[in-house]
Structures are given as structure tokens and as C-alpha cells.
Amino acid sequence: LGPDRAGSIDLAGMGVLASAPDLYAVDFRPLMVGAFGVEGRYCYPCVALFQVQSGMLRPLGIQLERPDGTRTVATPADGAAWSLAKMFFQCADIWVHEVVTHYLWCHVYLEKIILATHRNLAPGHPIRRLLTLHFEHTLNLNRNGLVQLMGNGGYFDEKFSPGGPGKAAAVEFGNREWAFWRMELPEHIVRRGVGGLPDYPWRDDGLVAWTEVDRFVAEFVAIWYPADAAVAADSEVQAWSAELHAAMGDRGFPPLDSIKNLNRVLTATIFQV
Asked: Sheet holding 71-74: strands in order across?
């Protein structure tokens, strides 16, 4: 969900003007290129448009894109067609959430952090002792998920409309789009432009949890690292930092050369769990 910046949404078909204020879009099309489903099951690339009205975020319409390139727009005034469009949109929503947001951006990227932690921080290192409590069972869950859910012929191939090719395309796109800001909730809110929404529980509840994790991490780190120089002088942390940066790519992942950056990475990691 973010401000409407797409130029290929049929605003006229939804009965709104491009200049209308407070428009927000949920656009699944980039993640669903070619994901039109296997025979008998369909999952169309789609985009939903919303507007803030009387202090509430209300739906204006849903645009579906067919394999032949044609588009269909449905609005809340369209009765059964609107119900059908919502069904397609909800199918796309659960697909993108499970494959990209949940599996890839949460489980897979967290596994990179777990492996780097175990390779570079000794069992007694305070940072490893802190994180181990939050990493419990994650690798086992990831293995089971890879075999039973995401593997070839697994649940996602068999039960979700896009099938194996759609899954692979979504993972490839999601991997390109990942950046460290997606792990930092306050920055995530700014980047997506949803700070001004009047009622957004994901943002509001999440910030409560984020604030407490951030406070706890700062207090914990201060016990072991009185100054930035102490972080830079910790050879295990520096080796950990190097592997994390190599595993995550050059996508805004901060070097662990200061208390501030160490706190950022620890808060984001614990919050992600």
C-alpha cells in the first residue's frame, strides 16, 4: 500500500480523476508478470485503488489484467462483478504475501543473518547470545518450508494458481526489490508514503513494538560497547558485518562500525523475527 504513482491505472473507469487527493494503490502487477495460473485456476495481475474519505481508507476500484493485455475495472457499484474482482485481488494478495513478503523477505533473508551469526560470532559472544533466543527453530522451519511448501511440486506449485513458473518469477522479482529499509519499520513507513493515513493498524501497532525492541537493544548494546571504537575493535563483529554485507548485497545494509548501526541491525533483525 502506498500513494498512487502508477500511470497505467484506469482512473476514469474507477470514476476518479488523476488529480484527486489522497489516492493510494496496492499494485501487485510487477510481482505477477506471467502469473495467469494453470488450466482451470486463474490469478490475474491486479491493482486496487483507495482514497481517504471522511477519515477512512475506502476502496474505489480494482483493475484486473488478462493474459491478452486487456483490462477490466470493477467498482463497489458493480455488484457481482465487484465481488468477483475482490476475490481475484484477495488471491493475489495471499500469493504475494506468502511467496515474497513472508517466505522471501522474512524467512530467507533472516536465514542469511542466522548463518552469518553462527559462522562469525562465538557461542559466548553477547550479540550471538542475544540473537540465538530469537533464532530458535527458524532454520528447521525454513527447511520444512523449502521442502514442503516452496520446493518443486510442493504446496505452492500444487495449490496456488500461478504454479511453479509464477512462484519462480515472484521470488526473482522480490529478491531484486529487497533492501534494508524493508526491515526498518519507521523507514519503511516513510518510503511507502503511508505515514499520513488516518487509520493504519499495521503501522500503528508495529511502531509500538518497534519502539520497545529499539529501547531494549540500545540498553543491551550499551552494556558491552561504551563507544563506537569498541564496536569497530570487535573482530568478530567486523567479520559478521562483512559476511552480512556480502550476503545481503549493496542495498543499504549498514556496516557495523558504530553503536548506532549495530543497534539498527539488531533492532531490525529482532523485529523481523
From this structure: 2-3, 23-27, 46-53, 56-65, 71-74
